[in-house]
Backbone:
């Protein structure tokens, strides 16, 4: 069983998956920083700092007027926290858009590198027209030769 485990771990796809997870975790930090440090402040300026997080409806229980979402939850009231959901959806859309733009830039860079590499490769050379005609002539001559 230990040998099977060693074989399983040594397979390339398991190693590739582990590397992908590690790179994905690092990339998550970059995307989160992009959104929190660059995009959200600009959106905050454009929208006047609108934040729906503390918007909710009290379904049952008593909550003092103007209480925060955390206070309403702590009071034990049944609440419909639509603001948190809206902010989660908005953050998801912002993060998805940022990832889309980053992937688009990366794909463009990879495509440019591939085109440069393709341009540097010499075109495959084949036989010239004269060489092909000589080969055909020789094949025909061999067929026509008496046995």
Residues:
């Amino acid at each position: 069983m230990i040998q099977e485990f060693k074989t399983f771990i040594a397979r390339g796809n398991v190693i590739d998956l582990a590397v992908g997870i590690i790179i994905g975790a690092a990339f998550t930090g970059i995307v989160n920083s992009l959104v929190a440090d660059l995009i959200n402040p600009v959106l905050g300026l454009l929208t006047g700092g609108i934040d729906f997080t503390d918007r909710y409806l009290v379904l049952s229980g008593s909550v003092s007027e103007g209480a925060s979402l955390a206070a309403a939850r702590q009071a034990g009231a049944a609440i419909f926290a639509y603001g948190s959901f809206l902010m989660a959806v908005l953050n998801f859309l912002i993060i998805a858009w940022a990832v889309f733009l980053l992937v688009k830039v990366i794909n463009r860079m990879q495509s440019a590198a591939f085109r440069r590499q393709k341009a540097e490769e010499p075109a495959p050379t084949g036989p010239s027209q004269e060489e092909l005609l000589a080969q055909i002539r020789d094949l025909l001559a061999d067929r026509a030769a008496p046995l």
In short: DSSP finds five helices and two strands in the chain. The longest helix spans residues 82-120. The chain has a mean pLDDT of 82.
